[in-house]
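Mods, move this if it's the wrong board.
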Amino acid sequence: QVQLVESGGGLVQPGGSLTLSCTVSGLTFGRYTMSWYRQAPGKERELVAGIAIAGFRTTYADSVKGRFTISRDNAKNTLYLQMNNLKPEDTAVYSCNANLRGVDNYWGQGTQVTVSS
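Not the wrong board. Structure tokens:
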């Protein structure tokens, strides 16, 4: 049974930081491209950041470049998203995704991030 479990969300003030984690089980983590997505109320889900298998190639949405950092620890089957200088518009449910060349695709249940003073 494949499971992706996110943690680390919460309420933070503008300018603050949070680190999200996604612990994966039930698949060979090192074979999957991993990504973070987010969905704000009334908006479509959007890609926040992605990281290739070995972790050397990353991609970011323009809105988070320079503020967010995606990383992975293949030995711990865990994906991370370090979020700095958070803004109210970063408020959303953040979900991790595991994809194997479009053949297998799995989602976590999501974790809420709220940026508010």
